[in-house]
Design a protein that fits this description.
The protein is mainly alpha-helical. It has 4 helices and no strands.
């Protein structure tokens, strides 16, 4: 399961970067700084069953709630 989770997080980082027109490195730092990875870790069981758009929207809102600005 750990490999699946890592692969999923890598995909989310890449797609988050594409959506918000930032680099993958910037997306990684942003998600780490504003606790997006914590959201993914706690809710992976649900997140990987939802659409990519729903997850990207959730990550954006969660990070914004924690001070993130894009």
């Amino acid at each position: 399961m750990m490999k699946s989770k890592i692969e999923y997080l890598v995909m989310l980082i890449a797609e988050f970067a594409k959506r918000y027109h930032i680099t993958s490195q910037e997306a990684f730092r942003y998600l780490r700084r504003y606790k997006g990875f914590e959201l993914c870790d706690v809710h992976y069981g649900i997140m990987h069953t939802l659409s990519l758009d729903e997850n990207l929207d959730s990550l954006y809102r969660y990070c914004k709630k924690n001070g993130g600005v894009l």
